[in-house]
Amino acid sequence: MEITGTAQHAAWQARTLPPVEQLRADLWSVPVPIPHNPLRYVSVYAFALDGGGLGLVDTGWESDAGWRALTEGLASIGGSVDDVRGVLVTHLHFDHLGLAARVREASGAWVAMHPADAGAVERLTRTEARAAVAAEVEFLVGLGAPRADAEADVGGAENLSGFMRMAVPDRLLEDGDHAAFPGWSLRAVHTPGHTPGHLCFAEERTGLLFSGDHVLPRISPNISSTGHGTADPLRDYLDSLAGVRDLEPTEVLPGHEWRFRGLADRVDALTAHHEARLAELLAAIAAHPGSTPWDLAAHLTWSRPWEQYERRMRIFAVTETDAHLRLLASRGLVTGSGGPVPTWTPRPR
């Protein structure tokens, strides 16, 4: 894999925000910071459109600092939020969709997503924050979390209030649809896994692939089970990886970290990572039969000692463990006990 976003990579190593960059004559990347998050920023991509105006892929985390970074970034390329005609959203997470509502309010731009994620956003905006908290707590309890730990990790309703204000899209994009960016040929590629409606965008004129969080150059995106998600999200993700492996883009432009070439090699590395993770989990189940997903997460290797995991990091770890368990079950390698809190044992050969 070849790093092409050298300025992004250098900024990552220096723990600073990368610069706004002109990637083509009519294409720029604008970093928008994510507060208190190891990913640090989202790369928003701005396109000059035939006939005037700008199009965006993703918008960044909704915050005053994020809004300032986006508006100042667009100003540095000679534009403004007022110039935005449309926003393509790779997926529903707050660091990608968060500012779309403010962009639409300021410019009148349309916002487009895949129907699966659009439906989830609409459901979130109709849900009272306390009800959303209660539902997430119950989901974690169903994975084996002690209720007190689940409540502490989810936190109060104020932690979810921003998600209730996200922009419900006014346009839908299915797999294979082309986005309405005049002068560009952006084809939507449905890549479920990270979210049910995750989209990549293949630009057929330049050969660029805007990969969102589907393929990142350094880390594997979080693949988690959720209360309203698909039954086997990791299977979805691995199938989606296989689906993009042979696209041979001229360059991959991800939502985080840095641009790169060598999509097939990166897909193979991500696939191997998850197969190794599945093998590690299967060994943990053999060593601790009758364990819940919450219990099993503590027996896996993470980037830091398990005792340091709490709040959203622990939630992601447990729900990712559950996603791997579901794939092991669908492969016939483990058996769940059933009941309100399933426990897992190796399936007899």
Please describe what this structure looks like.
The chain has 349 residues and is of the alpha/beta class. It has a domain at 2-127 and 165-271: Ribonuclease Z/Hydroxyacylglutathione hydrolase-like (Metallo-beta-lactamase, Chain A). It is 37% helix and 18% strand. It is built from 11 helices and 15 strands. It has helices at residues 6-14, 64-76, 94-97, 100-107, 115-126, 129-141, 147-154, 233-244, 263-287, 293-297, 311-330, and strands at 2-3, 21-24, 27-33, 41-48, 54-57, 84-88, 110-113, 171-172, 186-190, 199-203, 208-212, 251-254, 260-261, 334-336, 344-346. A 7-stranded mixed sheet has the order 2-3-4-5-6-7-8. Strands 9-10-11-12 form a 4-stranded mixed sheet, with no helix packed on it. α8 (233-244) links the parallel β11 (208-212) and β12. The radius of gyration is 20 Å and the shape is globular. The mean pLDDT is 95.
